[in-house]
Design brief:
This protein is mostly helical. It has one domain. 84% of the residues lie in helices and 0% in strands. The protein has ten helices and no strands. It is globular and about 65 Å long. About 2% of the residues have low confidence.
């Protein structure tokens, strides 16, 4: 009740930057509560508690976006209005990701091994499926695999939002925890390399490692997560419209058209994200 009252949907859209810090607060509280109460299952419990804290804000924001569909705006202005909500969601996601990465680096090895156990297993499974992809044909095959896998996640986000209102937030917070774990692991490994040379002249190197760790996963990660949020928003708007409006009515048709535009937009953004992941990120950090 306290956490969900920190920011209203209207304030979130007006000042989306605040949601970055809200994401940090949600995750930090969830991490320490899960370690305190459900330590052995903390890797999943912290995701659940973070999503539970964010759920009222996300759901009420989706309701507000659905109401905008009823104001008779042109589609381009409606999409511009939806951008406000999407920007707020992205800041919330970034805050969660940074918080997970921060605590991965800061906490002890024994605590991290328990707290991020499921996330580390997921990353290892993903890495195990990634074999060498050399040449154009290999990259295209890898691109198809990445894109189709991301489309599956997008479908889950749409279905979860349609069935559970803002249910996609659980999938998105889980992704934030996995990406945060990957970033934290990268930063921790790189920092270990310079641990024997601690000094003021090495401070810049520490900041460089942190920046590289964030950039490595942000190039394709941000547009990918944006696509999931767009799909989740579309599914949530349709779900709310089904409850509040009759099928076949003019209002419902307008909402359906708006949701279809959002779904097409999410696929386009997801396509770009897959291109960046396969062809750009390996070049920059290969």
């Amino acid at each position: 009740m306290v956490l969900e009252a920190l920011v209203t949907p209207f304030k979130a859209e007006q000042r989306p930057g605040r949601l970055f810090f809200l994401g940090v607060v949600f995750c930090t509280v969830a991490i320490f509560l899960s370690l305190w109460i459900f330590k052995s299952q903390s890797s999943l419990v912290m995701v659940f508690l973070t999503a539970m804290a964010a759920l009222p804000l996300v759901y009420n924001t989706i309701i507000m976006e659905e109401e905008k569909d009823l104001e008779g705006m042109e589609e381009k202005w409606l999409l511009k209005e939806h951008t406000k909500a999407l920007r707020a969601f992205i800041f919330l996601f970034l805050g969660a990701t940074v918080a997970y990465a921060f605590w991965y680096v800061l906490l002890s090895t024994s605590t991290v091994s328990v707290l991020f156990q499921s996330q580390s297993s997921t990353i290892n499974a993903i890495n195990g499926r990634i074999t060498g992809h050399f040449g154009f044909n290999g990259n295209m095959a890898f691109f198809s695999k990445i894109f189709l896998n991301n489309v599956k996640v997008l479908i889950f986000c749409i279905l979860f939002s349609f069935v559970y209102g803002a249910g996609a937030i659980f999938i998105l917070i889980w992704n934030a925890s996995v990406i945060g774990t990957a970033i934290g692991n990268f930063m921790r490994s790189e920092l270990a390399r310079v641990a024997n040379f601690v000094g003021f002249d090495k401070v810049a190197h520490y900041f460089q490692i942190i920046s590289i760790g964030l950039l490595r996963y942000s190039i394709h990660g941000i547009p990918e997560i944006l696509a999931y949020f767009i799909g989740g928003l579309a599914g949530g708007i349709i779900g709310i419209a089904v409850i509040r409006h009759d099928f076949g009515s003019t209002k419902f048709e307008h909402i359906l058209l708006d949701s279809a535009d959002l779904l097409l937009l999410s696929l386009g953004v997801l396509f770009v994200a897959a291109l960046l992941e396969v062809f750009v990120t390996p070049i920059v950090f290969g």
